[in-house]
């Protein structure tokens, strides 16, 4: 695969599949240069020696690299999977980890990488391509939305909560029961799939994955209580990659120092000290959060705290935070909507994540982009299922 990029001497950029034996060392150099060159990035990924660790658990995946003069200057990753979207079974391609070295940016290499990945998606019968970025990432949105024809369709919130190493006391009136894989899959298909977009058809494979910690349902012990329940699953991302804050806001640095100084007093005040996020740390990812009933809010919080307690005792405290991604806009005015009830620290969370999507095939019942946009607007009444393999 060969493309043209905008240097004066019109050098060729070669796009090819990643070769682990040949490219691993150079990929580390590309990743490092992108970390240094991006002033807006402050959260770095440590892949634990495996550049494609974040997509390796998906059903079908690939990584493309860009070469100029036999030098690796960029890369992109992608995966393909079947999901439910607008009550239809479709195949989607996920665009992840677009990287171009700073000195080679703004010359079209990013566009070439995305275009070639889309071609790979279509060769595997993908109906849509989608990606996630931050709302204030002008370069990314300019490329995907401004140049490549993607449409913004969701703004979920990434909620982050520090793990309390001492553990949290759970409400005594709530029962939490772990479900077996078949039972959990049945529960999701019965209660969640009809109300959710991007629900994975291979949910059983996710629940059986070695990284999946389990699925729990919570309900009130008192049988006379108005019926309410909540369900969620947890995924151990620490086994795949770790994170590190590299360029933190000054306020975070200051607060961290204060928390360390007063750390021994915080437990008595009922507070959680800020964890050390400047060294690589692991995290648990909560997904499949769904709740019903008038008293569901307390159940969601109890389940999240239950997962946090497991993270605190896992791997000698290597898991420092619990992460949940939910719709940025509540589907109702209830004070106990899922987003409101998930425990999180606002200063660590991101409420402006942006998902963009692009049709790769023309739908038989649509005539153009306007129809596609209308379809996306109608889907906002449904919740968004975030696949843990996409994190």
From TrEMBL:
Transmembrane segments: none
Coiled coil: none
InterPro entries: Acyl_CoA_acyltransferase (IPR016181), GNAT_dom (IPR000182), Plant_NAT (IPR052810)
SUPFAM superfamilies: Acyl-CoA N-acyltransferases (Nat)
Superkingdom in the source lineage: Eukaryota
Domain N-acetyltransferase: 13-164
A Pfam family that the UniProt record links to this protein: Acetyltransf_1
Descriptive protein name: N-acetyltransferase domain-containing protein
Originating organism: Eruca vesicaria subsp. sativa (Garden rocket)
